[in-house]
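Hey, resending since the last one bounced:
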Amino acid sequence: MKFVDEVVIEVIGGNGGNGCISFRREKYIPKGGPDGGDGGDGGNIWIKTTKNINTLVDFRFKKKIFANHGENGKSKNCSGKKGADKTIFVPIGTRIINSNTDEIILDMTKKSEKILIAKGGWHGIGNTRFKSSTNRTPKKYTKGKKGESRKIKLELILLADVGTLGLPNAGKSSLIKSISAANPKVDNYPFTTLKPTLGVVKVKNQPKFVIADIPGIIKGASNGIGLGLKFLKHLERCKIILHIVDIAPNDNSKPIENIKIILKEIKKYKKKIFLKTIWLIFNKIDLVEKEKLKNKITKIFKKIKQKEKIYFISVKKKKGIKNLCINLSKFLKKDKKTKKDE
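The structure tokens again:
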């Protein structure tokens, strides 16, 4: 299934039914009076979250969504039938935005969360309503109101505890593949990951957590180079970010400079993400000889004034992976407790 995380759609509530002009006509009752019924209300449009879908692909070509119109009123004081409501199902984590003002209407982060997004039109009134002592044969009625019409943007932001960040081929997908049941594409060329992937990590005697694999970004991503920054929004809800760094890049680039490139790009994109807790994870230590590795680690600690934790791992040889996962789980458990106490 194609991963679509942003769409603009128009939602249109049903029109209310018109009121009816009618007079009672029965044998032996020559002047039966008015009996025109009211119309039915137009149907509403609701948006509801469900865990059964994880993409907005259904709205890629369906740009307008209508609720049913209310029926017109009928004779014998019969009201028209109300228009059926329409429910739009979206993935958990969908943000609803007013397309005209960019105002966030609602962040839908809970299961079965529901919101009325477009109200149906009010029904029209039949001529029975206009009967009075001075007007015995009213020939007046009102038309139903039009349903509410709104243009909205649906933006899916994945719900993950941990997010990954880094240059292409740093080992983000390989790490997620090794610690969870997720199966992202892994290969020896840039941009093998073309869409975000979620994996659940289970740690013995610790709470499990969800980790997100985000496509790699490169220098100039804020200007649209590579895959740009379009997937960085999926890090917004993460409680912690793992910045994966290739300690032995085969393009002769320097790990420290590569770190600065990524941090510069995310700072340009959104300061909120830049200020999150970020752990530096130096991967592929198995490609460096022991003595050279010691020297590299010493230089890294001298050059980096990192307040957060720094890890040296090898996904391929599974070195340092278990310890990293345990510490992540403990961090998330502590973070959850802190927020609960607040």
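Residues 321-341 form the longest helix (21 residues).

Sorry for the duplicate.
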